[in-house]
Amino acid sequence: MEDFEPRIIVFACNWCSYAALDLAGTSRMKYPPNFLVIKVMCSGRIDPQFIFEAFRRGADGVLVAGCHPGDCHYIEGNYKALRRMTLLRKLLESFGIEKERFRLEWISASEAEKFVSIAHEMYREIKALGPLRIEEVSKIGEA
Amino acid sequence: MEKPKIAFYWCASCGGCEESIVDLAEKILDVVNLVDIVFWPVALDFKIKDVETMPDKSVTVSFINGGIRLEEHEYVVKLLRKKSQLLVAYGACSSWGGVPGLANLFSREEILRCVYQETPTVDNLNNTRPKTKLNIEDIVTLELPEFLPRLLPIDLIVDVDYYVPGCPPTPEVTWKAIEILLSGNLPPKGSVIGASDRSLCYECHLNETKPEKVLIKEIKRPHEVIADPEKCLLTQGLVCLGPVTRGGCGALCVKAAMPCTGCFGQLDEVIDYGGKAISYFASILDYYNEEEVEKALSRLPDPMGTFYRYSLPASRLRGKIKIMER
Fold first, then answer.
1. What's the CA gap between A65 and B6, in Å, rounded?
2. Which of B74, B290, B318 shows the shortest C-beta gap to A137?
């Protein structure tokens, strides 16, 4: 398990969170290289299907990042994300996916440090959990 | 000209799909006039060995209902695939797993323990469990098919040509599907036939009463309220899955003031019915912070059974994930 390196998908909104990730890079802050970033226009664009698909395709963790409540470029997209992700979390629990593997965070354009500290935390927690093995369940004949 | 040959088979299902074929009422006579039924365990005395002796591709259409739960289901469905020109997943269970598919939240051991030991009405002092083989004093050997670890929709083990949705498909949908299949003018492989291409709301009689923007303050469960049958059920706080569910049933449940539970399944281009359903439903909860959203959702005790009622085995994650040993 020591050499397991998690793959973590980040869905970052165009207006705040992606800018924060960019800032972390241009400010030469260090964080684990295990984060694959997908830019979306708004956290309200993130359909729970995307998160299921990410886990299905081998993600060990997913981070959804959007503007702080009240700061959404589209007025209330992040509130929709909040509602969706709250319900999604309940389903992920029933699917047997540990809560550490999925996070919703508000990260404004200036909060590069917040992203970096979340990234370190997620990396550490998911590395300790080990890989999420999903392939096995779809094959017949395996328990 | 020889009549087309039709086969029906049931796997892990309740029998409602078989019933729905009989529900064609007098039209069943037209079906019998148009086709020869060569295999239908629930109604006719043909055996699996009769199917084994048929030439390959000699059956025109096989209708399969129910998901794959036993070794026997897997064997017969693969056999019928070999013997048939077209294979149709008939009903929600064979298409996406259906209600029995919710068992994918539990392991085989948990299910067997619950059924054979823990159920209060079961008295099983010897801890008897079903065996695949039982030899009785060297006289006779009894066999039972293996109970598979998971329930699978049939398209995970064989090629499926068409899907007929519903729990069960309504007689109108079944008849339309049969007409399409016998017309010779076949839609592209993998199509859902007999139903609509648009969501249920488009054909729902209450659609006109739906306001421009629907927001829900309090989720209500059907047994808690007497719904107003003249008003969109969503606006009354009931979890109606009509907006994300394929139409074609004529909004039968809504006509009886019961919210849609999603038995016609997903629309084209949706990859995970439950994911789409929570995306839509959560977004209309009229709350703006996590505690309030949590509180509103606590009125929904079984989100899995609500949003994946018919489609858990066909979801992206297929069921509860077994995390490898650490």
1. 53
2. B318
Chain A residues in contact with chain B using a Cβ-Cβ cutoff of 8 Å: 1, 44, 47-49, 51-53, 55-56, 69, 79-80, 82-84, 86-88, 90-91, 94-98, 129-134, 136-138, 140-143
Cβ-count burial B298-311 (b if 16+ within 10 Å, e if not)? eebeebbebbbbbb
- Do the Cβ atoms of B316 and A87 come within 8 Å? no
pLDDT in tens, B165-181: 999 999 999 999 999 99
Domains of chain B listed by start with CATH number: 5-99+149-183 (3.40.50.700), 108-148 (no CATH), 200-314 (no CATH)
Report the complex ipTM: 0.92
The separation between CA A25 and the C-alpha centre of its own chain, rounded to angstroms, equals: 18
Query: What's the pLDDT tens digit per position in A113-136?
Result: 999 999 999 999 999 999 987 755
**What is the tens place of the pLDDT at every residue in B261-306?**
999 999 998 999 999 999 999 999 999 999 999 999 999 999 999 9
User: Between B157, B308, B321, which is nearest A97 by CB?
Assistant: B321
Q: With CA atoms as reference, report the closest residue to B168 among B263, B266, B270.
A: B263
